[in-house]
Amino acid sequence: MSKILAANFKTNHTRASTRAYIEALDAHLDASGYKGETYIFPPATALDRFETKADIRIGAQNAYPTVKGSFTGEIGLEQLGEFGIGTILVGHSERRHILGESQAFIAQKYAWFKEQGFTIVYCIGEPLEVREAGDDAVRRYLVDQCEGIDTAYEKLILAYEPVWAIGTGRTATPELIEQTHAVIKRLSDRPLLYGGSVKPQNIADILAVPGCDGALIGTASWDVESMVSMLETAMRDEK
Known about the structure:
By secondary structure, the protein is α/β, with parallel strands linked by helices. It has a single domain (4-238), classed as TIM Barrel (Alpha-Beta Barrel). It contains nine helices and eight strands. It has helices spanning 15-32, 77-82, 93-98, 103-115, 128-132, 135-144, 174-185, 203-207, 224-238, and strands spanning 4-8, 38-41, 56-58, 87-90, 119-124, 156-160, 192-194, 214-217. The strands form two sheets. A four-stranded parallel β-sheet has the order 3-2-1-8. The chain starts with a strand and ends with a helix.
């Protein structure tokens, strides 16, 4: 099975730099014949209909569960539909811990976009204090983050991102990733990505972990050459 690689731009890149990035990425993927699924999550200001030869899927980092309405600062289905967007990130730790989204609201958002037939990349992961409390605490925390979520949804992609490893340079060991992915696999049989300081130097080890179906990449994906390097690693590992 081909690996899934997803790039989360967060609050980075402009409309112009996103277009240049996708054009460069598309040229490489088309030339290499890469067959894996590749997702790009630009900032909302850079969403567009990108004509690509390769299978590059554009997603929204966030949206409000509505077609349109009086929700200042949010975007809804009408805005996403203008660009043919049918993929969304839900439950990212920065939405949970920085922007205060509750599990109840995340589950509401998940259910609504599921009804619209979106591909949903659903993020779960524990903070450092939970990891330090032991395996049982981590398992309970991850189970709680799946409360109200249809984990059998056919267009679901799960992403395990330990909060203590996101943007910190700290990466979970392959053994810890395998152990935690095994717990999550008991909750759902959908594809499962790892995220948390993934970069060209460690992606081969991460993709080799049993039960890891790909990677959700932050900082290291913002440079297109770095992303191409990681895609090349994924392609080599498939041969």
